[in-house]
Structures are given as structure tokens and as C-alpha cells.
Amino acid sequence: MLILDRSVRDAIVSHARRDHPDEACGIVAGPAGSDRPERVVEMTNAARSMTQYEFEPAEQLRVYRDMDDRDEEPVVVYHSHTATEAYPSRTDVRYASQPDAHYVLVSTRDPGETEFRSFRIVDDVVTEEEIRISETVGGEA
Amino acid sequence: MAIAVRIPTILRNYTGGEKQVEASGSSLGSLHRFVNVYVNDEDVRFTGALDTGLSDGDEVTILPAVAGG
Q1: Domains in chain A and their CATH numbers?
Q2: What is d(CA A1, CA A107) in angstroms, rounded to the nearest whole number?
Q3: Is 0.90 exceeded by the ipTM?
Q4: CA nearest B61 in A: which residue?
């Protein structure tokens, strides 16, 4: 199950909408071992494509080093599909090399409604998981 | 020649959980297209890839390539 704050979900959706029709990508960092996605980090899509995404290597190094310094890890790795469903493609599965991460797929194919789904991808097997949105208003859970 | 290698979380099973290990050697060997390798913050794609030389005290970082479609 993926538990995330509404503000985190909204930030991911907003990023995907803004970059449409290019695929948007990023991570949500959280304290190592906590499974809590707290800090959204939008990443540049070096592929700048409507059908592919790729983290820019130099930017990835800076972001991952920064997470390491803060004792964080990428809890969520997200990207958007702009013309297909919010489900991992074969390429997504092939490149999924972080078995502890939640892979969030967003689809912006419909201008009105955004699809938002989460998956675990372990040893090439895709398993969809439930998403629970938590609300923190003014710092209180 | 001492080289420090920073290990991404997903590979730490192989290093007993260690974030960083010492290694020795003067070259990187062959590269896998699903990883990004950096020597002292430089992506080795720009420094000769397979031929990137290493010096004493260099730091090598390995990260999984994150991509898809």
C-alpha cells in the first residue's frame, strides 16, 4: 500500500499536467527505511518526449547525493503517460531497478480526469497496490 | 591505489549494508546500460567510458539509470 499526503499527490498531478504532452518524471524522497514519501523532487525529462522519460544523469547524481546526505531514499518514483493508461509499460518494467520504491504512474490522456495509480515492480513482476491519501491540514494529521 | 565506491541502496545487499566501500584498480571495466557511473561527479560517458582512468583517492558513484516510456 502507498500512503501519501494529499499535497504530495497534488504536486505530482500538477507536474504531470504542466509537462503534458511530454512525459513528466520525478521522485518523492522520504527518510530511509520509513516508507513515507514526503518531499517531491521534480526531475528533468532528458528524453523530452511524449512517449519516453529518462532522468538526466548529472541532475540525478545531485539529487541522489542530496538524499544520501539527508539520510533519505526515493520512496516513490513517478512518471506520466500522456496518451496511454497509467500502467507500467514493458520499458518501465525493464528499467525498474529499485525494488523498494513505489512506482507511481499518472495518465494525462484525458484533459478532465487524471489517472493516478501505484505499483511495485520486483523481479519484472508488476503488482498494483492500494493508495491511501492522508490529509494534513495546518500540520495536524 | 585506493578508490572509494559509493553504493546505491539497491546494491547494498552485496556490501553488508555499507554505503561506501574501498576498492583498488586503475580502470572501470565494462559498463552496463542500466547504470550511471560517475568518477568524482563526472559522468563517465564524457570521460572515455570504458577507458576512464582512475587515480588514487578517486570516488566512484554508481546509480541505477531511471528511465521508461
Answers
A1: 2-134 (3.40.140.10)
A2: 20
A3: no
A4: A61
| A60-80 pLDDT per residue, tens | 999 999 999 999 999 999 999
Cβ–Cβ below 8 Å for B69 and A91 = yes
Judged by CB atoms closer than 8 Å, whether chains meet at A96 and B68 is answered as yes
Minimum CA–CA partner of B38 in chain A: A61
Spatial strand order of the sheet with A25-31 comes to A39-43, A25-31, A72-81, A102-107, A115-122, A125-129
pLDDT of residue B31: 53
pLDDT on residue A115: 97
pLDDT category, B25, cuts 50, 70, 90? low
Q: Which residues of A touch B10 (CB under 8 A)?
A: 97-100
Based on its alpha-carbon atoms, the radius of gyration of chain A, rounded to whole angstroms, reads 14
pLDDT class of B14 with cuts at 50, 70, 90: low
CATH fold of the domain at B2-64 = Ubiquitin-like (UB roll) (3.10.20)
CA distance B18 to chain A (A): 13
CB of A96 within 8 Å of a chain B CB? The answer is yes
Which of the residues in chain A have pLDDT under 70? Answer: 137-141
Which residue in the block uniquely carries the three cell numbers 528533468?
A44
> What are the residue ranges spanned by the domains of chain B?
2-64
What strand order describes the sheet that includes B20-24? Answer: B20-24, B2-6, B59-64, B35-39, B42-43
